[in-house]
């Protein structure tokens, strides 16, 4: 089993249809009051990776936190979070 380290070149190597699906799914959750990111699977070949979309919201101290859904993925098999903006920068050749 491989242990993929996700960087610009590796992200650019994702199958184009898969990458478009990842971007579309991320954009479908994009909201002005949330930060959105994606964690990519670190096992396999990295061509059509499993992924987890991550949403972050900021709440004032008067709001109650939401219950978390049971983790479906093993954290050891996921990359750090890449923001939607970071993925777009990589695709546009802006990010290092």
Describe the structure.
By secondary structure, the chain is α+β, with helices and mostly antiparallel strands. The protein has one domain. It is built from 3 helices and 3 strands, in the order ααβββα. The chain has helices at about 10, 15-30, 85-90; strands at about 35-40, 50-55, 80-85. The longest helix is centred in the first third of the chain and has 14 residues, at about 15-30. The protein is globular and about 40 Å long. Residues about 65-70 have low confidence and may be disordered.
Question: What proportion of the residues form beta strands (DSSP E)?
Answer: 15-25%
Largest sheet: 3 strands, antiparallel
**Spans of 5+ residues with little confidence (pLDDT < 50)?**
65-70
Element pattern in H and E: HHEEEH
Helix content: 25-40%
Q: Calculate the mean pLDDT score and round it.
A: 80
Radius of gyration: 14 Å
Number of domains: 1
How would you describe the shape? globular
Overall strand count: 3
Kindly, what is the distance between the CA atoms of the first and last residues, rounded to a whole number of angstroms? Answer: 27 Å
Question: What does this entry show, briefly?
Answer:
This protein is α+β, with helices and mostly antiparallel strands. It has helices spanning 8-12, 16-29, 84-91; strands at 34-40, 51-57, 82-83. The radius of gyration is 14 Å and the shape is globular.
Architecture blueprint of SSEs:
Elements lengths: L7 H5 L3 H14 L4 E7 L10 E7 L24 E2 H8 L5
Antiparallel strand pairs: 1-2, 1-3
Features:
single chain; 96 residues; alpha+beta; 3-stranded antiparallel β-sheet
């Amino acid at each position: 089993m491989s242990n993929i380290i996700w960087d610009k070149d590796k992200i650019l190597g994702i199958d184009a249809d898969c990458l478009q699906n990842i971007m579309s799914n991320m954009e479908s959750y994009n909201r002005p009051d949330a930060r959105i990111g994606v964690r990519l699977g670190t096992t396999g070949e990295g061509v059509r990776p499993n992924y987890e979309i991550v949403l972050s919201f900021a709440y004032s101290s008067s709001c109650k936190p939401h219950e978390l859904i049971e983790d479906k993925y093993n954290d050891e098999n996921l990359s750090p979070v890449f923001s939607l903006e970071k993925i777009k920068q990589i695709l546009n050749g802006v990010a290092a």
